[in-house]
Structures are given as C-alpha cells and as structure tokens.
Amino acid sequence: MFTHMKDLQFEAKPDGPDAAFARRLQEILGGKWGEMTVANQYLYQGWNCRLPGKYKDLLLDVGTEEMGHVEMIATMITRLLENAPLSLQEAAEDNPMVAAVYGGSNPAHLIHGGGGALPVDSAGVPWNGNFITASGNLMADFQLNVTAEAQGRLQVARLFNMTGDPGVKQMLRFLLARDTMHQNMWMAAIEQLKEDGLEEMPVPDAFPDSGDLTEQFGYTYLDFSPDGDAAEGRWASGPSPDGKGRFRYEGSPRPHAPEPVLPPGDPRLYGTNPGMAGRAADRARSELT
Questions:
Q1: 225 assigned binding-site residue
Q2: What are the protein's GO molecular function terms (predicted)?
Q3: CA separation, residue 277 to residues 177, 228, 259, 266, 284 (Å)
Q4: pTM, 2 dp
Q5: Residue 287 assigned to a binding site
Q6: Residue 35 labeled ligand binder
Q7: Using one digit for the tens of pLDDT, what is the confidence trace for 98-139?
C-alpha cells in the first residue's frame, strides 16, 4: 500500500524557465538509467523477493524513495517549461537569441504534455519496461543496482555542468548525494548477503560443479589482442576475488574444437544448403553437353 505526501523530498524549483534544458532533464526521468527505471526496478525486485525482512524492506524503501525522485524531476521539468513560447516567431519577439534556445526544446512537451513532463528520454524515445531487471537472485540484482546508480549519477553529473540555473543545480546536488548513498548501500547489501551465507560469487553460487572445465577456463584470462597489455591487469594473475582460485594468463588463445560442418537443412525451408552447389554444378555440366 502506498500513500502520497504532497510535500517533495527536496525542492525542485528553477530560478527561471528553460525549455531546452527541460528536454535534457528528461534523460534522468525517462531514460534507460533514469529515475523511472530504478524506481520500478527496485520495486519489482522487492515484490519478487522471497525473503521477508530486511532485504525486502530495503528494496521497497529505496524504490519508494526513487518514485519520489520521479515526482521531483517531473515537477522541475514542468517549471522549466513555464511560459515556453509556442512558436519560433513568439520566441524571437523580444530577443533573437531566444530563438536558438527554442530550437533546442522538445515540441512534444507542449503538444503531448501541455507544458509538462513526459515518460520519455531526452531524444523523445518512450520509457520501456524492458529497462528494468528483477531476476529473483538478490546478488545478481544488487550488482546491477550498483551499475544503475553509477550510470544515473554519471548522467546527473553531466547535466549539472550543462546548466547555470542555481535552483536546478541545487536539486541535482541532492540527487548526486542520494546516488552516492545508494551506490554504497547496494555494495554494503552485497557484502551482507555474503555474511548471511545467502549468496556468494560467482552468481549463482549453487551451480553444478563443472570440474576440470572450471580449473581450465574458470580463472583464465584469454588475450585476443596482439600487444598483450592486458597481462598487466589484476584480472590476469593472482588470487581471484571469489577466493576460490587464481587467475592465469593465456596469450594467443588456441581453439578447443574443430571448424563446425553443418548438415544440409530441411529443403522445405528453402535455405541455401551445401548440397545446392553440387546440384548447380551438375546442371551446368549437363547444359554444356
């Protein structure tokens, strides 16, 4: 059950309108790594979680907070669109420079949204439910959540440098601070899973033993580049992070199976089969004779 407080978690009020920046701000609302994605991702992970208690509460608490961020950004976009010109002529009436800014705005904000935010990214592409992942494995999901927060924070930081509006910058500072918390929080949750004995690396931990294949391939870095620079990486020598093996390096990896030769396909599928070449040659010879 959800309840809605009319107050925002943090102020979302620009010092002045800016329709062009409203378009850019759409990325952290309806983009792949935007707030609509993380809000729904955490909520679905929580709803799908089979462990009652702290992990389920963590996911639902953060998903609910992120939904509040959706409201903040939507409010900021709507305020940035205040008094946006409806035509190029209107934009250029007072200042020709305004026309250039008008050219960077998103017409859909006015045509579809009536001067409000939309569930789209900065290019106007609609938000997609395929952006979210809720696998049912907490270790796998928490690792993806770290990535989601890092990508979202990166985009917020870039947007911060694209505006001079003090009010917008203050809201972005708040989002950056919360993303900092969330990145650290998911990394702490990963360690908590290990401490509780629920999951280990790699994911999934409970997987049939692959025996000799794990020994041969499970910790071997295969270098397909000619210069061999990757051999200097932490991933090519020394103990592995899961504590179950040691990395080794293999330059110029060799194949472990011969070239595949596929049998002819079902002729009813009208594919180009190996036998076709022989039949074509036979026809050519018969025509010559």
A1: yes
A2: metal ion binding
A3: 65, 42, 20, 16, 11
A4: 0.86
A5: no
A6: yes
A7: 655 566 888 899 889 999 999 999 999 999 999 999 999 999
